[in-house]
Fold this sequence. Notes:
twelve-stranded antiparallel β-sheet; Porin; 2 domains; Thiol Ester Dehydrase, Chain A; two-stranded antiparallel ribbon
Amino acid sequence: MTSSSRRLRSSAEFLALTHPVDTHRWELKVDPSMTGGRGSLFGGVGLAAGIVALEQATGKPVIWATGQYLAITQQPVTIDLEVQLPAQGRHVTQGRVVGHVGDREIITVIGAVGERPGLAAGCWVECPQAPPPEACPEIARSDEAASLHDHVDLRLVRGAFGFTMFGRPTDDGRSLFWARMTDVENDAAALGIIADYMPSVLGNALGRVTHCTSLDNTIRFANRRPTEWVLCDNRMEYVGNGFGHGTVHLWSQDGVLLATGSQSLIVRPVDDR
């Protein structure tokens, strides 16, 4: 499917958030398209919902956001999201989005939104060289159940996709792949979803299929730039004591830094019961 033939919608339309009460309350109905394939909420979707809610509540673009995952949520379920804005400045507003299912808090997203005039600019990380997405092999899904993965294309550049070990593991704990949402534009919330594929580098670093559970998910935005594909430069930094820490740089097709992300993970080898 070419970029010209794709029908794109915003992340807000994809998530279908509703305002049942007032402008500081939303509802996210979790269906299979919001899950990672096992029926539970895909972490990046929870972060994306918080980003959309913060931007809609303030009318300002997100600067950074981090999600703390407190409980696994199985669909079908409706998550109640409440936006709180304790610090509202002229240029920058800081807030949080608290997600509940009934009386149980299951996710909290903290972040800042806004824009400031500034003369200083620069980028001190380098975009890696990569062949175009069309020249890279597609990372096939490992399951047939309906999920978020129906809306995401992944093309492997380097390393192995650690949930299936498609590809060849690298010695430096680094993997590289192209990603795009097939029917969603790459706005801030969509980048939050794409960045949540970073944990796939865990299996690449360990050299075997490895699963994990995210404790947090942070994304910091740089340039806002339209791009069909996003180049994900994933790095596993440390694994030990049953936990791991990793980062990702997200690049446009023309080599412009879009965002950086990081996560802390509970490491779960496939034989860990």
